[in-house]
Specification:
Strand content of chain B: 15-25%
Strand order of the largest sheet of chain B: 1-4
Number of strands of chain B: 4
Largest sheet of chain A: 7 strands, mixed
Oligomer: heterodimer
Order of helices and strands of chain A: HEHEHEHHEHHEHEHHEH
Number of strands of chain A: 7
Bound molecules: thiamine diphosphate, iron/sulfur cluster, magnesium ion
Largest sheet of chain B: 2 strands, antiparallel
Shape of chain A: globular
Structural class of chain B: alpha+beta
Radius of gyration of chain A: 17 Å
Largest interface: A-B, 29 and 28 residues
Helix content of chain B: 10-25%
CATH superfamily of chain A: Thiamin diphosphate (ThDP)-binding fold, Pyr/PP domains
Strand order of the largest sheet of chain A: 2-1-3-4-6-5-7
CATH class of chain B: Alpha Beta
Distance between the termini of chain A: 39 Å
Number of helices of chain B: 3
Number of helices of chain A: 11
Structural class of chain A: alpha/beta
CATH architecture of chain A: 3-Layer(aba) Sandwich
Chain lengths: 251, 74
């Protein structure tokens, strides 16, 4: 009824107990199996806790410098359009040091897929404030809570990319409960299908748990996604151009 | 009624407890002893009550849970 996906390597991951990265890796592996694209997929790993993602998912992989994953993915996809190219990134990687690459890759409408793991913190380096850290959220570098007057408000990536003309598919999902996990898999699968059909740039943001650096147990972490993150980062399909076009044609 | 049998790989489990928190039948619990990683792994204490909903397997960050159909394991 539920079997471990074949595209997942038979190894133990280094992720903390209850970390959302593990759930998202598993969903990606399930999609690679179902779409039968494991053999020709290239995963660009970020600098962040997912730095070893290609050791856990049985695909070819490339490691990009911090924030540069979509630029590396762009080069890969342009040189090898026959491959499926996935850029997997955290919030520090995608919205801080790599904000420029993120924006311009989307703006060019590159035919690749970005999976954005938003855990509202820099996980790998021990819990510093990220561009998506919530107002009032305490981190190592915001010990009194994020103060928007000083460092700005948390950035909403989907909403920002949704102002651009080129992207084909933009959705925000979450992995805080089984229903949300199911929806996340659907979104990842759709994004990959669009890349396969050449529809263009697809972006899936997944709200995810970092219980270790939030200083909570994993179950409380999952609740925090629902109670604190979702109100600021609403779960929504922002754009689905291929479906919208098909609808227009039909009417 | 739909039935299932959760198979939890105790060695792979990190003891996060997400599966325990989402099981609608509350038939998963934490072990009293630890695995080789030192984790208090999850286990099912009442397989007969499993409804095969896959909630535990979906939530597991370590893909340590499979849910089998009763005839598969019989
Ligand atoms: C050029 C450069 N600057 C800074 C760092 C330090 N660094 C490593 S990971 C990271 C941020 C990780 O956070 P995120 O992208 O949110 O990933 P997470 O671990 O939360 O999944 C930073 C700043 C680095 N490795 N390279
Ligand atoms: S530090 Fe956070 S993001 Fe990194 S592995 Fe641990 S829980 Fe996951
Ligand atoms: Mg992060």
């Amino acid at each position: 009824m539920y079997m471990r996906p074949e595209s997942l390597e038979n190894v133990r991951t280094h992720y903390c107990a209850g970390c959302g990265h593990g759930i998202i890796h598993k969903l990606l592996a399930e999609c690679l199996d179902e779409l039968e694209i494991r053999q020709n997929t290239i995963l660009v790993a970020p600098v962040g806790c997912a730095v070893l993602a290609y050791k856990y998912i049985n695909v070819d992989g490339l490691e990009a410098a911090h924030g540069r994953a979509p630029a590396v993915a762009t080069g890969l996809k342009r040189a090898r359009p026959e491959n499926i190219v996935i850029s997997y990134q955290g919030d520090g990687d995608l919205l801080a040091i790599g904000a420029g690459e993120t924006l311009h890759t989307a703006n060019r409408g590159e035919n690749l897929t970005v999976i954005f793991v938003n855990n509202a913190i820099y996980g790998m380096t021990g819990g510093q404030m990220a561009p998506t850290t919530l107002e009032g959220q305490k981190t190592l570098t915001s010990p009194y809570g994020r103060n928007a007057a000083e460092v700005g408000f948390p950035i909403r990536a989907c909403e920002m990319l949704d102002t651009l003309e080129a992207p084909a598919y933009i959705e925000r999902t979450s992995v805080h409960n089984p229903g949300a996990v199911r929806k996340t898999k659907k979104a990842i699968r759709k994004a990959l299908e669009y890349q396969i059909s050449g529809a263009g740039y697809s972006f899936v943001e997944v709200l995810s748990m970092c219980p270790t650096n939030w200083g909570v147990d994993p179950v409380t972490g999952a609740s925090w996604v629902k109670d604190a993150m979702i109100p600021w980062f609403p779960l929504k399909k922002f754009r689905d151009r291929p479906a919208e076009n098909a609808e227009k044609e039909a009417s | 009624m739909k039935r299932g049998i959760p198979r939890i790989d105790a060695e792979r489990c990190k003891g996060c407890g997400l599966c325990i928190s989402v099981c609608p039948k509350t038939i998963l619990s934490r072990s009293e002893d630890v695995n080789s990683q030192g984790a208090y792994y999850a286990f099912c204490h009442d397989e007969n009550s499993c409804i095969g909903c896959n909630a535990c397997a979906l939530m597991c960050p370590d893909a340590a849970i499979e849910v089998h159909a009763p005839e598969e394991v019989a």
